[in-house]
Amino acid sequence: MRVNRLTADLSEYPDLVVIYLGMRVRTPRGMLRLLGLGPKLYRAHHDRPDGLLLHEDLIWSLFPPHWGARQYWRDLDSLERWTRSAPHRDWWQRFLRDSGGTGFWHEAYFLRGGIDTMYDDMTTPAGLARIAPTVAMRGRLFSTRGRVEDADPKAAPVIDENTFYRKDSDRK
Description:
28% of the residues lie in helices and 24% in strands. The chain is α+β, with helices and mostly antiparallel strands. It starts with 16 loop residues before the first strand and ends in a 7-residue tail after the last helix. This is DUF4188 domain-containing protein.
């Protein structure tokens, strides 16, 4: 008997986005951040936001603790809408102010072509950052659409670039 070979028919999802993400603990304080965020993230994807087709939890490593997920989104528009809405927006704003002893990364792969990468406070490279040099996320590289489509974001970022790169002493 021959092996039963199958492939996924993705014709219903021409704008499919597959995103891998991870949060790696960097300090003892980071373990508290990871444990505190886990249940909130579980509830967020368990509620199936519009456009989320599937969420799968992953463990990248136990030592150091490195939680992750693989998600399948109908399109970038729905993924962006979710990331710009509460509660995700609020978590992301807090993280960008203080990573809490963790590092966070994502890699998104687009059926129509292109790959987006983002690594925040990752002291040890993950994914594509292990095989390719990294550069600062400035200008068009500050947003996913800029990195993938060379286009302006359709929605305002969670924190705009000028605010993000402003010195702490300049923030009001």
